[in-house]
Amino acid sequence: MPYLTTGSTELKAVNQILASVGQAPVTTLTTEETIVINEVDRFTGSISGTTLTTETANIPVGTYIGGVGVVTGTSIAVAGVQQATNPVTYTYTINISQTLASQALTQSKVTTRVETQTNPDVAIALNTLREVSREVQAEGWSYNTEFDYKITPDSNDEIRIPADVLQMDLNQGYTENIEKDAIFRGGKLYDKKAHSYKWTVETVYVDIVWYFDWESIPTPIQAYIVSRAAAIVSSRIIGDTSQYQILQQKELTTRSQALEYECNQGDYTFFGAPSHGNFYRPYKPFHTLQR
Question: Per the confidence metrics, is the pTM higher than 0.70?
Fold first, then answer.
């Protein structure tokens, strides 16, 4: 199979890493998923087609149904509907058609889902790629950094941090932010000075660094991530000192190219970025005096 040298998908990036360490490319990153299901309750019911009839109420949608003769993977698809019977019964719609007389059945729920890559080298390459992608993006580049971003606290006057946010800090261009010191804590924005998660203002202005999926990362940054990940993968699965040094040189080259791209895209000057406001922070003696 030809080596995939270009492209922006994770598959092609993983193949670049594998090729860098002398491993064969792959055609898919599909993983095997193992579902761990634990029994939570038992009840009596019968099944006719896709209808489960039972006297048990409030069986949650998604609950797996088990028992003698029950098709593996049977689960509740639609919530139960109370019937005008004596005693009261409930009918649920299940996902697999089958027929069973009234008998003892079990309710089970998924407790964990375990994903495993069948090829260990591919798993290491993919995990390393994602790990390095997050590390590099956390540095904050022009493509994933926004200044003066408006955040609205929720109904509890709290600001929850989305999963795709790598950094968030108060924009110091606003008077109300000067006396605050914001940090991440417990998935929310916390004010260390007020010792509180509460943000009583209507709008909070922050500087934010986003995490982007692989396809949304600019090509020069992708190249740097791949070369850096390749060096790490080499140390993890090959252990060849000479190969590692060569890949480190490649990493330095791609980082310089990424920085050149960043300088061009960011329009940086010594005195700040006029198109987005002056973010240059000069030395101020009173900062030292405060210490």
Answer: no
Q: What is the pLDDT of residues 95-144, one digit of tens each?
A: 999 999 999 999 998 877 666 666 889 989 999 999 999 999 999 999 99
- Residue of 45, 40, 235, 214 whose CA lies nearest to 124: 235
Read out DSSP for 201-236?
Answer: SS-EEEEEEE---GGGS-HHHHHHHHHHHHHHHIII
Beta strands in the chain (DSSP E): 32-54, 64-66, 76-83, 89-116, 145-151, 165-170, 182-185, 188-191, 204-210
196-231: per-residue pLDDT in tens? 999 988 899 999 999 999 999 999 999 999 999 999
Q: What is the dihedral of CA 38, 43, 48, 51, to 10 degrees?
A: -70
Closest by Cα among 113, 103, 100 to 62: 113
Going by C-alpha positions, the residue among 263, 258, 264, 228 that lies closest to residue 131 is: 228
Q: What secondary structure letter does DSSP report for 59? A: P
- Residues 64 and 108: their CA atoms lie apart, in Å, by 5
Which residues have C-beta within 8 Å of that of residue 210, sequence separation ≥ 6?
Answer: 137, 144, 145, 146, 164, 165, 166
Distance of alpha carbon 15 from alpha carbon 24, whole angstroms:
8
Cα 29 to Cα 39, 116, 152, 228: the distances in Å are 32, 10, 38, 20
